[in-house]
Specification:
By secondary structure, the protein is α+β, with helices and mostly antiparallel strands. The chain has 3 helices and 12 strands; from the N terminus they run ααββββαββββββββ. The chain has 2 domains: 98 residues, no CATH class; 93 residues, Beta Barrel (Lipocalin), CATH 2.40.128.360. Strand 1 and strand 2 form a beta hairpin. The two termini are 23 Å apart.
Length: 202
């Protein structure tokens, strides 16, 4: 299958994967209310251009997606490698760095987007965490009072321990276990954004 054919076939899942990062970006920068955030995601989430990079990892190519509103993302499958301005989509160097990165100090099983929603069982709040392969990420807490996003950096100082450092706070450490059945999930002894269990969704 050619790179172009692969991209066409998997574009819907890539766009779905980057919507989490887009929503978090809009909440963090614009701080809209819930309805405005949903509208902004719909308005900005339309792809306006694609960059098919001649770089791959584990047989999956890197694809840059330009979005409305001057935004862009670099994707590896449904995983967000980088998100920012339109130029991010065209930066082959980011793809090359991610493709050859040894993930030193990180647990590759944690890389991706995680949501507490499958385990909330009617709770009044939910959390999301996105941990990227470059050691950056964000967390989101949503409840009836609103939604809050914190940008962060992360690392694994020892096996089974996740350290999160918010951009404006002190680092916290969380012991965890990742399991893959029936779905890939992470269970934390110390809560992350008030939740102990997350399912992987990207």
């Amino acid at each position: 299958m050619s790179r172009a054919e692969w991209t066409v076939r998997h574009l819907p899942e890539m766009v779905a994967g980057l919507r989490h990062a887009l929503r978090a970006h809009l909440i963090h920068t614009l701080r809209p209310d819930g309805l405005a955030a949903a509208t902004a995601v719909d308005d900005s989430g339309r792809p306006t251009g694609l960059h098919l990079h001649d770089v791959s990892r584990d047989g999956i190519p890197y694809v840059g997606i330009e979005l409305a509103g001057g935004l862009g993302a670099l994707m590896h499958g449904s995983r967000v490698v980088a998100f920012g301005g339109t130029a991010v989509a065209s930066r082959r160097r980011l793809a090359e760095e991610d493709a050859t990165d040894t993930r030193t100090g990180l647990d590759e099983a944690l890389i991706g987007h995680w949501s507490s929603a499958p385990y909330d069982y009617g709770a009044m709040e939910a959390s999301e965490v996105e941990l990227r392969a470059d050691g950056t990420g964000w967390s989101l807490l949503a409840n009836p009072g609103g939604e809050w996003v914190a940008r962060l950096t992360w690392r694994c100082p020892s096996p089974g321990v996740l350290e999160l450092r918010p951009e404006d706070g002190q680092p916290s450490r969380h012991r965890y276990l990742v399991t893959t059945a029936p779905v890939t999930s992470a269970t934390f002894e110390e809560p992350v954004e008030f939740c102990h269990q997350y399912a992987k969704s990207g």
